[in-house]
Amino acid sequence: MKSWVKYINDYKSYLKIERGLSHNSVTNYAFDMQKLTDYLNDNAISVSPAEITEDTLQQFIYHVSSEGLSARSRARLISGLKSFFNFLVFEDYRKDMPMELIEVPKMGRKLPDTLSTAEIDSLIAAIDLSTAEGERNRAMLETLYSCGLRVSELVTLKLSDLFFEEGFIKITGKGNKQRFVPIGSFTQKYIELYTSTIRAHVNIAKGHEDTLFLNRRGSGLTRAMIFTIIRQLANKIDLQKTISPHTFRHSFATHLLENGADLRSIQLMLGHESITTTEIYVHLDRKFLNIVLNSYHPRKN
Length: 301
Known about the structure:
The protein is mainly alpha-helical and about 300 residues long. The protein folds into two domains: about 1-90, DNA polymerase, domain 1 (Orthogonal Bundle); about 115-290, Intergrase catalytic core (hpI Integrase, Chain A, Orthogonal Bundle), CATH 1.10.443.10. About 55% of the residues lie in helices and about 5% in strands. The longest helix is centred in the N-terminal third of the chain and has 20 residues, at about 25-40. The radius of gyration is 23 Å and the shape is globular.
């Protein structure tokens, strides 16, 4: 399997350097390839990436399906394999595309829960503002919701990324791609309150002088800590929904659309390369669609 290691390493370099994918994304793609090579090893199939056939790949897909892999996980696996073999064709390592006729399983789009504005207000109101962490948490959740950030973008936000006079913050997203996201005065107020009354008195750890949101030890917060803070607040108000930091991002997009924002503007603020991705995040319930139809269609009556 030496040849597989070489091709996979070349592929990982391509994903990182040419496509600008994050470390996590590159690792996930490599994990797909590891599943395939494990299958080949287990079944004593000696074949190189340049020679493997559609039949062998189809047998591999049948194998993972029989192990109970969900349709969504199979679809992601097939997508990863297609990406790898497209790379091989692109680099002239092989002439044909063996994944061309292998179909992705059909499935419905899985949409995360959306919070109403009242639920978001209740979560933030449940924060204990008598503690230093409370002021920080309020500023963080307001930023998550009002700017539609990913949790990784929130924890890496820097003081030098804040351009409050211009009304924007600079976000470094997936693949180190940067974008400017508008931030309202309401959220600015809570960030400034946190930085002036709480952060200013923290003994900041070396290397975190520019990190906006700090833990008690003066270091940056982890993604896991943000999840914990949100789940504790959800339990506190007995919220009957499974939520995460991403729920705030999804709610941001949904509320913007419901209030008349266009999909292209939401795409730019979320930092999606494809508007198709934005459509997945921004689901519309039937009630809202009826309102749109009855408000704007010439045959509404």
